[in-house]
């Protein structure tokens, strides 16, 4: 996608703008962002269901911007499972081939059976969709897309109607499937945990714009800006308004919680800044028993998560979220020694751009 822009309402609503995205054969791309950020519109532009106001879409090097959806060789799987209720599973999966392919009936059936086996629904081919569970129905939708051997799969929140366990299972399956098929998938979700679990390349969007494109590790550890830092990760990152003080031997960051000498090199534009935002993930705040802790906090809540606890602290009237090994602290503890991993925090400027 090159500089793709799509507006609605005579240009008043900018659904997506300046979208530049390169998708390779082996990619599992996830479009991730809050509701209304333009994920679906971006996917619909890719598919041909929407025509961009500006920009171009190339598929295998060919400009497909004005080409009809059916001529793009892309397959869709939507959130709502639109199977034909009166057709069998076999007929549902075979449907696309029946409409377009020159294959003989036995070749088509063989292809349907191979795909059904890959999806674990080979024993259900003669059933009607109503006799299947939600997860099985979604597998049939996938099968219907797979049988066409498209150049890419486009999936719009395909698992959002499934319960949590089934959703996890389908995520694993679809990721394995993508590896086996070696066909790119573009998957839309607003669920960052789902995105991290399945995506190789995560496209974080907000307000119609791409904020960052990166691996799950990159968007977690090296967010391009404050929006990405805040949106990715659970529990969400700790962000505190701070001041940068310049001294003869470098910078010191100060806020209501602590004073921290900065021994990492700061972006040169930071030299003159005073108000900044300090950010650190809850996973990188530690409870320590040494006397030289950076600051102390009072426990306000402990949420057990199995082997770990999410612990909320009050630090000078600010909420600080941490993730620590189970039973590190109790709910009544006050003045707990806390420290941060010194190579893991970030500093953002007033516009949210990351300086460190
Ligand atoms: P969600 O996660 O809620 O599905 P999204 O990130 O997929 O959201 P889009 O559906 O792409 O977001 O919508 C982006 C913006 O464009 C929203 O403000 C939406 O209201 C607007 N929009 C989308 N389609 C249309 C349309 N056909 N007419 C008018 N506005 C639209």
UniProtKB/TrEMBL annotation:
Q: What is its EC number?
A: 7.5.2.13
Q: What are the GO MF terms of this UniProt record?
A: ATP binding; ATP hydrolysis activity; transmembrane transporter activity
Residue intervals of the ABC transporter domain:
1-232
| Coiled coil start-end | none
Which SMART domains does the record cross-reference, listed alphabetically? Answer: AAA
Q: Which cellular component appears as one GO term in the record?
A: ATP-binding cassette (ABC) transporter complex, substrate-binding subunit-containing
Q: What class of enzyme is it?
A: translocase
Q: How does it sit in the membrane?
A: Peripheral membrane protein
Q: Which Pfam families match?
A: ABC_tran (PF00005), TOBE_2 (PF08402)
Where is it mostly found? membrane
Catalysed reactions, as listed in the record: L-arabinose(out) + ATP + H2O = L-arabinose(in) + ADP + phosphate + H(+); D-xylose(out) + ATP + H2O = D-xylose(in) + ADP + phosphate + H(+)
Q: Which UniProt keywords apply?
A: ATP-binding, Cell membrane, Membrane, Nucleotide-binding, Translocase, Transport
Q: Where in the cell is it found?
A: Cell membrane
What is its biological role? Part of the ABC transporter complex XacGHIJK involved in the uptake of xylose and arabinose. Responsible for energy coupling to the transport system.
Q: How does it assemble?
A: The complex is composed of two ATP-binding proteins (XacJ and XacK), two transmembrane proteins (XacH and XacI) and a solute-binding protein (XacG).
Its name, as the record gives it, is ABC-type D-xylose/L-arabinose transporter
């Amino acid at each position: 996608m090159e500089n793709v822009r799509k507006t609605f309402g005579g240009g008043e609503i900018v659904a997506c703008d300046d979208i530049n995205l390169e998708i390779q054969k082996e990619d599992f791309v996830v479009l991730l962002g809050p509701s209304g950020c333009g994920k679906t519109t971006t996917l619909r532009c890719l598919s041909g269901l929407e025509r961009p106001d500006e920009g171009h879409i190339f598929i295998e090097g060919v400009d497909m911007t004005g080409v009809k959806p059916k001529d793009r060789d892309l397959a869709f799987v939507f959130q709502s499972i639109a199977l034909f209720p009166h057709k069998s599973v076999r007929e549902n999966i075979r449907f696309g081939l029946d409409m377009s392919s020159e294959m003989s009936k036995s070749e088509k059936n063989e292809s349907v059976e191979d795909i059904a086996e890959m999806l674990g629904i080979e024993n259900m081919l003669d059933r009607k969709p109503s006799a299947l569970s939600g997860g099985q129905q979604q597998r049939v939708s996938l099968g219907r897309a797979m049988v066409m051997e498209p150049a890419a799969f486009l999936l719009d929140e395909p698992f959002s109607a499934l319960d949590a366990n089934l959703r996890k299972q389908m995520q694993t399956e679809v990721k394995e499937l993508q590896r086996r098929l070696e066909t790119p998938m573009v998957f839309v979700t607003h669920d960052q945990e789902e995105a991290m679990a399945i995506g190789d390349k995560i496209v974080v969007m907000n307000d119609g714009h791409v904020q960052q494109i990166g691996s799950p590790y990159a968007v977690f550890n090296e967010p391009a800006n404050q929006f990405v830092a805040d949106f990715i990760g659970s529990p969400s990152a700790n962000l505190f308004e701070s001041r940068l003080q310049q001294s003869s031997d470098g910078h010191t960051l100060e806020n209501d919680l602590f004073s921290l000498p900065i021994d990492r090199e700061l972006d040169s534009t930071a030299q003159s800044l005073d108000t900044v935002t300090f950010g650190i993930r809850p996973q990188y705040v530690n409870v320590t028993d040494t006397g030289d802790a950076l600051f102390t906090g009072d426990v306000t809540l402990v949420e057990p998560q199995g082997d770990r606890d999410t612990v909320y602290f009050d630090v000078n009237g600010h909420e600080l979220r941490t993730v620590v090994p189970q039973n590190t602290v109790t709910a009544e503890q006050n003045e707990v020694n806390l420290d941060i991993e010194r190579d893991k925090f970030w500093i953002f400027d007033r516009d949210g751009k990351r300086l460190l």
